[in-house]
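Protein in question quoted for reference:
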Amino acid sequence: MPDLLTLAQGVAERAYAPYSKYQVGCALETSSGKIITGCNVENASYGLTICAERNTIFHAVAEEGPGMKIARLSVICLGHEFPPCGACRQVIAEFSLPGGASEVTFLRDGKPVTMTIAQLLPETFAL
């Protein structure tokens, strides 16, 4: 089983973050076992910036189609520690395993923390 945090760290080093200096990387494993990575890409028009998690998820959908499901996802920011933002949590939930069972791993106090997306976002928006 690949270490997704290590993969996320490697791709974070390639992030385009000239404005915030927050280099974020993400790696996910789909329910079919495919590994996808991505990083944040900033833009001078901040609203056009894309987070690493959403970049990775959208790439996974492009690879597997609209039925893609996230089995597990890891995110890391070089020099900082935080879980996915609210917008990313909602997108993770959209492509989660049933019941919000997809696992999300991030660093807290230098140690990996793993939670389900249902724990990170207990009240998802749904149509």
About this structure: The helical segments are 4-12, 52-64, 86-94, 117-120. The mean pLDDT is 97. The longest helix spans residues 52-64.
